[in-house]
Amino acid sequence: MGEFLTEFRTETTLPAPGGQRGTEPGRPAGAPKRRGPIGTQRDGRPGPAEGEAVMLLERARAEVDPVLRDVLGSLPGPMRRIALYHFGWEQADGTPADGGSGKAIRPALVLAAAAALGGPEARAAAVRAAAAVELVHNFTLLHDDVMDRDTTRRHRPTAWTVFGVPDAILAGDALQALAMRLLAEDPHPAAPAATARLADCVVELCAGQHADTAMERRGPGEVTLDEVLAMAEAKTGALLGSACAIGGLYAGASDADVAALDAFGREAGLAFQLIDDVIGIWGDPRRTGKPVGADLAARKKSLPVVAAFTSGTPAAVELAELYARPSEEDDLDHIALTVERAGGRDWAQNQAADRMAVAMQQLARAVPDPEAAGGLLALAEFVTRRSS
Amino acid sequence: MGEFLTEFRTETTLPAPGGQRGTEPGRPAGAPKRRGPIGTQRDGRPGPAEGEAVMLLERARAEVDPVLRDVLGSLPGPMRRIALYHFGWEQADGTPADGGSGKAIRPALVLAAAAALGGPEARAAAVRAAAAVELVHNFTLLHDDVMDRDTTRRHRPTAWTVFGVPDAILAGDALQALAMRLLAEDPHPAAPAATARLADCVVELCAGQHADTAMERRGPGEVTLDEVLAMAEAKTGALLGSACAIGGLYAGASDADVAALDAFGREAGLAFQLIDDVIGIWGDPRRTGKPVGADLAARKKSLPVVAAFTSGTPAAVELAELYARPSEEDDLDHIALTVERAGGRDWAQNQAADRMAVAMQQLARAVPDPEAAGGLLALAEFVTRRSS
Prior knowledge:
2 copies of one chain form a homodimer. The first copy, chain A, has helices at 48-73, 77-86, 105-125, 127-148, 159-163, 165-184, 191-216, 225-250, 255-282, 294-297, 303-309, 314-324, 332-341, 344-366, 370-383, and strands spanning 152-153, 156-157. By secondary structure, chain A is mainly alpha-helical. Chain A has a single domain (23-28, 38-383), classed as Farnesyl Diphosphate Synthase (Orthogonal Bundle), CATH 1.10.600. Chain A has a two-stranded antiparallel ribbon with strand order 1-2. In chain A, helix 1 (48-73) crosses helix 3 (105-125), helix 2 (77-86) crosses helix 6 and helix 11 crosses helix 13. Chain A is globular. At the A-B interface, helix 4, helix 6 and helix 7 of A face helix 4, helix 6 and helix 7 of B. Chains A, B: Its EC number is 2.5.1.1, 2.5.1.10, 2.5.1.29. Chains A, B: Residues 1-49 are annotated as: Disordered. Chains A, B: One of its GO terms (molecular function) is geranylgeranyl diphosphate synthase activity.
């Protein structure tokens, strides 16, 4: 969780949608339907909901990218170069690159929310807003990497390692400004409210990142579960919630529906973060070769770890001793087992399930028509790897 | 010029307006009226135009500060603390402070431009926009100090030295977001255009700061006068121009008048920067105790220095030798004299006068009524220290 706004750990190429593209009917939303515990192992082939999610993500990418390329192209030379590098569209020397610019989950949520409550017309009207949300996401990534001194992003050296810290800060500043300009120039009546909401979200993201860096300086035993949950909500939940809420605004949704969409995105975002933290300790069942225990080696205060620390169990005492003395001969499997024995894994998986249940309730409230809610449901299941 | 957006060198208390407050009639604008070379020595007492400028600055501060305190108060705790410290309203420990938060020249320009073309009603409507401009200015200062590693701002330790680099970056990010939210929540019909303009200005400020940091890595002989003028326009002129243009937007001004107001602010901003650079070498005639030659000791590529370097004179050759070997026994007076002999001082003062002449022409174009233009004229004279 040492990231400003967490990127998905699996940044590899999306599974090919195969023959399911466009043929997958809307699936019913409503009450949560468990098909096994969240984050359980899968066979690696896209299921029906995943197929729909992949299609929505690819479609969002295809619609938003031209807008992004257009506004990024309007930047002055040096800022443009850094931005295009960060998005994976240029190499550091300015030659074209075919790198992935992320999964477009946030733009896809904007568009799916607009479509759910306003149909294709609202969806089409929300493309600029979806691009603005993606710009804000990427602005936070640029600054996040500077603050956390992260050197790799989407399998490439981070922008600050290539262009220097000042230019990475400046490029992030410029991307935030571009996001706001995109919305300010949008004649849609929802644009001012969307701008205000996105600006509020930036403030929340900043507060979340502050909380994260502040926690890094404290011992794991000094951090409460409420604190770390609040931080994860601000860092990860806030922008997913805002994406859904902004889509709702473009569909002319009521205040109550917009609030429910925000809550849906937030809760799904928290569920995602919980699962992501589980994967950071016990590995991604969908991805071979993922180093298991990386977060433990870095002594991250991830959600399952803090849950284990605050469990009051004998295993918690043992974990505190293990965490206090990092060494190169760490037995990461043993630490992972200790977190598990202290209940950290079960807690995280149950929390994720609970959060998804709340997300589904909020979704059903905002979008009672199950068919209309299908896109948002598929995306939420995709990010939390629930689909099977 | 090592600052993102240059603050005024004289950040001390404003001269007391004395008996002139409110009694000074509007002064005629129009063609520039020279009363001696720009930046010439004065007797230290505020003259009539300075009295008017001081009144406008104090009035702007009084109107904008409540809005700023309100929006800064809405920030989450840690971000709020950093922002209030940066604005000089709190000590680092959160106790109240009575520090100066700057001269409010940019908000005063917004309000004066609105008043010049739209009267008191437009002026009152533009207060939120004026606060937004001030937030953007302060966001750039926070980030500027991080990038330039400056340790003092407004006579206090900079925010990053007190709260750390990550929190100073985050507080700056949050201030940019607050600025955009203020405008987005403003129901005035000019708000979207003002938001777009302010966002564009942020991009230009970023490009200017990039150019500045990039030039720092080059030798003074490798920098052209055009480059350094373009950089100063982006870093200093752009926000002063935007402030005037946004005021015009709130007055319902035509596109042509808004463009003329922008040009007025830009040119006045460049004149200010030229005079500020002259003061950075030869000292401020209005302020005893200002260390003369500070910019030379730091080997800054300020405008008079680049002019001297590119003059093709024998003194330029001598200057290149002096600049190449900084030492603690630098004879700064001798270097200053060499810049002067190479024509750097005359060039800067003539350029400043030319820029002010263009500024006055643009002002006369946008605001033909001399009485209505009086406030903007007084502010422009104040920042360039032309008033006597």
